[in-house]
Amino acid sequence: xxxxxxxxxxxYERRDGDIVQCRVCPRLCVIGPGKRGTCRARENRxxxxxxxxxxxxxxxxADPIEKKPLFHFFPxxxxxxxxxxxxxxxCAHCQNWQIAHADVAGGLRDLRSLPVDRLPxxxxxxxxxxxxxxxxxxxxxxEYVIDGATIAHEHGLYTVMVTNGYITTEGLDAVAPHIDxxxxxxxxxxxxxxxxxxxxxxxxxxLAAAERALHEHGCHVEIVTNVIPTLxxxxxxxxxxxxxxxxxxxxxxxxxVTRFHPELDLSxxxxxxxxxxxxxxxxxxxxxxEFVYVGNVPGHEGQNTVCPHCHRLVVRRTGSxxxxxxxxxxHCDMCGEDLNVRETVRI
Length: 347
Hints:
Layout: E1 7-8, E2 12-15, E3 19-22, E4 30-31, E5 42-45, E6 48-51, E7 56-57, E8 59-64, E9 78-83, H1 97-100, H2 104-107, E10 112-113, H3 119-125, E11 130-133, H4 142-154, E12 158-163, H5 169-175, E13 181-185, H6 191-198, H7 204-215, E14 220-227, H8 235-249, E15 255-259, H9 274-287, E16 292-295, E17 305-306, E18 313-318, E19 321-325, E20 327-328, E21 331-332
Helix pairs in contact: 8-9
């Protein structure tokens, strides 16, 4: 990237010898001159930290919001989805590894610029009600997310982060006031699993960020766990995640237990058996969660929303398509139960 398009990063501190420390994610990378952080998207140039990917996109699409997956947030709407290169994780099973694990500097010449002031126009032209930062990890281009979300709100659009949740409190406090929905992957419930699966030292920052996004910033939060045979499909892990959600996020927080498909370093691991996902749903309900969904299994009845009070079908889904909808201002249209469905933008 040429110097005239470089964008100075936020949340870093300068040290002696032109060394900088990034404070966006819990890795707190200490970066020497001419070097990049773990995410490969932030570079130290003479003691100033720059984002290499500000407004540089490799993926743009108009997606159903259900594809994120978000089931209790503006159901039935379309969201403008944008992604770039890089990630602060290197997950062994990453479905988007071609962009998330990419050499950012080497791939910049293939990326196009999407200025933030064009996001509302692009959303409007494609019938989108909001903008989502997704496909790779939004945290690594936090500057673009903040600027883009600010202008999206000015145009009445909702905003979404589809994230691994690995962000510092300082980073979250910078971006969350501009975000309406914070969709978080909780990949396991212990540090050893995160070290093995994501090459990250701890899962605690992920949990803390989800809690803070909900309680301190009023974001709508939904949790996804990709259930991987032999790695995180055991009862203790699934029950631990569900119990944490009940205790810290509330019983109405949606939990998506999604089917793993062989990929990358885990190509030898078989796809998740349907019965394992159905057991995860049962565990979630046993722990007290009211909304647990089966993901990556099109046509499964576990994708539907059932009112926990009157037990009637409120939302019928086939894949990412809504077939029937019986909601009124986030409540069951038949008995009036609060279903924790957000249909208004917090600005």
